[in-house]
Amino acid sequence: MFNPDGSFAYPPNPDLLGGDGNPRPWAPEFFGDVATVNGRCWPNLEVARGKYRFRVFNGSNARFYDLKFVAGGSALVLHQIGSDGGLLNAPVRLNRLVIGPGERADIVLDFAGLPAGSRIVLRNSAPVPYPDGPVSVRRGGVPLPDIMQFTVASQTGYTVPLPASLRPQQPITSLRDKPTAATGV
To answer: Are the beta carbons of 63 and 144 closer than 8 angstroms?
Structure first.
């Protein structure tokens, strides 16, 4: 949230009082009403007709995002190529990306098949708070449906196919078929 002068606005926390008896502006699970991308509100990125790698980081303190790149009412295909642990073994084809606070994802989005002038909106459909939805708008249930926009330019960009393997030397070991040694609470 922002104040009229453009500074950050944090609501006071009545459970955290300072030495002067006034509430401090630090609130756990704070949900603002504006998403920023690289420090900008609702930015537009002009893109060439080709592939782009985006390093997505969720810097929100409590908000999850369920992201889709939407053009003309349809979600575009994206490929996740990395996560917090680095590159994946191979690109993973997705039509949405769920990302929690502090998580990172490296994705590739291909704008080559879109005509010049197309507008793609990065949409968020995650309920707030995640995953069960709003307690109330007053208590942080403010959705952020639109994050940013992309406009496709006429020039051709990078169109080389994605490699089938991203980590041929040291693939990530799958734990799927490994026995569980212990479980706990």
So the answer is: yes
Contacts of 82 (CB under 8 A, 6+ apart): 88, 104, 105, 106, 166
pLDDT tens digits, one per residue of 165-181: 998 788 888 888 888 88
- Could you tell me if 151 and 157 are in contact, meaning their C-beta atoms sit under 8 angstroms apart? no
pTM of the model as a whole = 0.85
DSSP 33: S
d(CA 124, CA 96): 9
Strand segments (E) across 33-145: 36-37, 40-41, 44-49, 51-57, 65-71, 74-75, 78-83, 86-94, 97-99, 104-110, 119-124
On the question of a cis peptide bond just before residue 127, with omega within 30 degrees of 0, the verdict is no
Residues recorded for the chain: 185
